[in-house]
Structures are given as C-alpha cells and as structure tokens.
Amino acid sequence: xxxxxxxxxxxxxxxxxxxxRGGMPLGGGMKIGGGTLVVLIILSLVFGIxxxxxxxxxxxxxxxxxxxxxxxxxxxxxxxxAPAPADARKDFSARVVGDTEDVWxxxxxAMGIDRYPPTTLTLYRGAVRSGxxxxxxxxxxxxxxxxQRVYLDTAFFDELSRRFGAPGDFAQAYxxxxxxxxxxxxxxxxxxxxxxxxxxxxxxxxxxxxxxxxLQADCYAGVWGHFAQRxxxxxxxxxxxxxxxxxxxGDDTIMKRTQGYVVPDAMNHGSAEQRMRWFxxxxxxGDPRTCDTFGVAQP
Length: 299
Hints:
Layout: E1 12-15, H1 37-42, H2 86-110, E2 120-124, E3 127-130, E4 133-136, E5 142-144, E6 149-153, H3 156-162, H4 169-187, H5 190-198, H6 203-230, H7 238-248, H8 251-259, H9 272-285
Parallel strand pairs: 1-2, 2-6
Antiparallel strand pairs: 3-4, 5-6
Helix pairs in contact: 2-4, 4-6, 4-7, 5-6, 6-9, 7-9
C-alpha cells in the first residue's frame, strides 16, 4: 500500500511510552449504565475479546519523536518478527486516518451533510484511560462513543500478524478503517439507535444486533478501501491482505482457534464469511448506502 502518499492527519494523540511507567491505581473501570451499555457490547469491536478485561495500569506519556520520511511498505522492522519503530507506526496510522478523513468528508458532502467531524486517534502502550473507562491493550483497538476517539495500541499490529495470521499494511489499515467506521455510525446516529434497541433485547438478540453493527463498520472500511484503490494507493496483494484480516477476526475463526468449536448464539461480531462479504461489498461499491446491514433479513 502506498500509504506514504496519504495525507497525515493532525487528529492524532500519542500517549505512547512503555507500559508500567507513570501509572494510576487499579479499579478505574467503567460504570454500567444506559449511556455505556453500547460500550460493553462493542468495545472489543473487531477482535472478540471480553471488554471485562479492561483493568490495568495506565501509563500515558507524550512526546514521541518526529515521524520518519514516508514509506510505502508495511511499517515493520528489517528483522522478521521484531516490532516496528514507534515513529513509523505513528506515521502509518496518522496517514491512514488522514485518508479516511478525506474520503468521509467527500462522502458526507455528497450525502448533503455539511462536513464530516473527524475522530481523534489515540495511540498508547499497555493501557489507556478513555471516556469509556480504563482499557488494557488486551481489549484490542476500540472506538469510544463517549469521547468519539479511536484507541489503538500499535503493538497490536504485531499481534494481528502473529496471532491472527493477517500480516501486511492493508490488513492494519482495515483495522483502523473499521474503527473509523464506528465513528461514522456514531455521528450519523446509528450507534445511538443501536444502544436504545439493545437495551430492550435479551443476550441472544442483542448479539445478533451487535453483529449488524460490526458488519456495517466492516462495509464502511471497504468503502474507504474502494477510494484508496481508485486513487492507485493500493498495490498487488493489498485486497487479499484486507480480506484475510476480515476473515481472521470472524467469530467462528476465533472460537475454533481458542476453544475448538463454534457457538453461533455467542457470536457478536459476525462470521469470517460475513465479515469478508460486507467488507467486499464496500470495496466494490464505494457507496455507504450499500452498507445497510440493518435493513436485510440476514446480514
């Protein structure tokens, strides 16, 4: 992916620094109420990790070194398996976010909406305090509707490759674009409607509704990818990387890997087939209207 040609967003906050430095006491977790029910359902978002793991010590620090010159390959280290430099990951993430801003701003105007209010990407290591409570990196990247921010421990990019078997820069960009998709849902009112409806449902029905929310964010990620492809920012193999990532974080894939069998009623993000299908739908159309996962009988 030619991510070095993307515009770098200014809406990036770096709270990087080794985990365990600084710190705050344990037990600063979320209060469960109507306003945060959506967080308990979707805070794990792409990766199916229980949000009740959100305990830990936050050590936010700022002042990361300036980013290097633009790159066009995945922000990795020359040594296989070694972590990428933090500044390269920051530059990569900021450029992907900047490109999503450009795409969604144009789409909002096309839909008759004055402007797209961008999210802020918060980078951290180890743990972070968000508007939705204290989150450990075990929860994976997430979007917090309370403060309208995307939170990302960039060490997860290594996890995405090693644990989920989905290496590559476009796989990483898919993760960011998915979280930005949740921001689009938030600013357009979809997430608020989801929260109201979810409060009236039992666990099984709530999981089914959550799947529709997640699949729409996958489709929105594909919409962004459509325009990246049209502007020749994608390289051979990038689409396959994104689709592989979508499949790798399907509920059934994760369940098979972690427990050896699938429990359909426990799914809340969608199967590998569903996630690939809706990501591909956005990639093909470039039109958010094709992402109406709530308006079809079976998503």
